[in-house]
Amino acid sequence: MNDRKLENRIKSAYENIAPDILDSVLSDCTEKKGRVIMFREEKKKTYFIKYISGIAAVLAVILFVTLGINAYHASHMVASKIILDVNPSIEIEVNKNEKVLDVKPLNDDAATVIGIMDFSGSSLEVTVNALIGSMLRNGYISDAANSILVTVDSNDTVAGQMLQSKLMSEINTILESSDISGAILGQTVIENNELYELSRQYGITVGKAELIRQIVTKNTLYTFGDLVPLTINELNLISESGNIKLESIDSIGKASATAYIGERAAKNAAFSHAGIDEPSVINVKCKLDWENGIMVYEVDFNADGYEYEYDINAKSGAIVKFEKERDDDPISSVMDTATGSAYIGGSAAKTAAFSHAGVDEKSVRNCTCELEYEQGITVYEIEFEADGYEYDYEISAVDGSVVKYGKKADADFIARGSETAQQSNSEYIGISAAKTAVFAYAGLSENEIKNFECELDYEDGTAVYEISFDSNGYEYDLSINAVTGAVLTYEKEID
User: What is the pLDDT of residues 50-68, one digit of tens each?
Assistant: First the structure.
């Protein structure tokens, strides 16, 4: 009812009352109604404020709980597992902030490495540094066994691969600081029931199971069970020696074989047992392998119309197994179908190559000789190493003339040798002087240098040292004259 109607009703009801009294009554009613309306508006406003405040309080509680749950998950939930395999196998669980939740020994050797150390709450970097240091102190990583497998088990492939790469680099730096030239393998795996089942069945880590699976996939002569007892260094060696390309596995450095007698000694043992002089040997091949529970050098060669196959114990040099059979197609007895002339034979072809190269047969290493048909003529393809160089020759199979030849510095010889060996030519300045020259040219001191590499090579008739290193966030590549020390090329780019 509006004010006008109310006023008319009051006037009708009080029509006999004096006008001034009636006006007073009406005025009083209007004031009371106004107060009632104001009271009702205040009540509405108060209720609305309380309603909004209640909602805000509920939302604040929800937000606080959500943040608390997320913070708990970030601190306590496992985001990735890192497995370090050498022979000790260790599993590290980390949260998404790379804080360590737990470190688990997966075998007895791993328990020795961890000892009484407690890594809970430590950073992953500190933990890995301590574990690698303990492996070095306990002799699990050394110059003779330098391989380590880093496996990141994560459902986030991209994040896992980034973490893998970071760990490989950190471990390489740790080993370099201990004067160990490491061989680091790295891989990222995601949930794979078949892989986990292999791991449980053979009592090994998923990382080692994946490495073995890749090797046996590439070389069907192996079985999975055959390779389970091998250390990571042994697995790395047989994959390298057999030229097995491991998919999805990154690597730094080469596996050490210094615990074994070496290819040279293995070949000598085989030649001696066969009663063969090395100059008469052709098509010799030698590689490390795993046979019947031991590491062996497989040495195969041809000589005097026979084919020989040897297994030489890689540590003792003992003859493990050998076979000899008539060569159905010996190189020395083949006739040239075009001329009817007999081929000169592998021994004469090698002598021709050695004579042309000006090397003594006694200084020749790793010589191979194969009969091939090249550009219309039959040749002996001969490769060998001598005095710090690698030689490639093609010798006419009919008359022994040199058809083609090449010569380059032997990088492996340089890597193996001492300063004296690296300077097989007395005119060369040597690696120490080469380092001094390039550091001075780049304006750096030796303590600023990382990942230094130097290789003697032969370019355009000139012996040069090819040098690369990292320093202060940059990569450097230089070549200098091996005789004069003059800088020939210089490149510097952001690392």
Answer: 667 767 776 766 666 566 5
